[in-house]
Amino acid sequence: MTKKERELEALIAPTARAFGCEIWGIEYSPWGRGRSTLKVFIDSPTGVTIEDCERVSAQVSALLDVEDPIVDSYRLEVSSPGLDRTLFRREQYEASVGCRVMVRLAFPFEGHRRIEGLLAGIEGDEVVVQAEEAEYLLPLEQIQRTRIVPQFEGARERPPAAAQG
Known about the structure:
Elements: H1 3-18, E1 22-29, E2 36-43, H2 50-67, E3 74-79, E4 86-87, H3 90-95, E5 100-109, E6 112-123, E7 126-131, E8 134-139, E9 143-148
């Protein structure tokens, strides 16, 4: 997370908590005049509804209008982190051990910028990912983004249309 994203999270978190939600993460993309985006991901133990997102969005929008932490115009998006959630913090990595993940790195590591595999754990400041027959120790500070890859039990591909009877 950038310094700006941490500042925005500290500002917005109490508003989300007032609605029974926690900030899962924040992504701020400052693309310039009118093209910037602030994405706020909220979560709660009981899940997040569209109504939760609407309520938090309205209050966060009003808060940002008053506090004015973003100089240029921007688009605010409030949503749940989803099944393919991005991991933002060490605690989220620890809670996701055993999940399949897609890791995008800032710089190539052993010839790879993207690694998909099982999140096996955290050792010091490194994320352990088991991919195919290799195990990677990836420094947290080199990770641009890690997303959960949802796995669906019992999911089967549909047979081709010609094979259906």
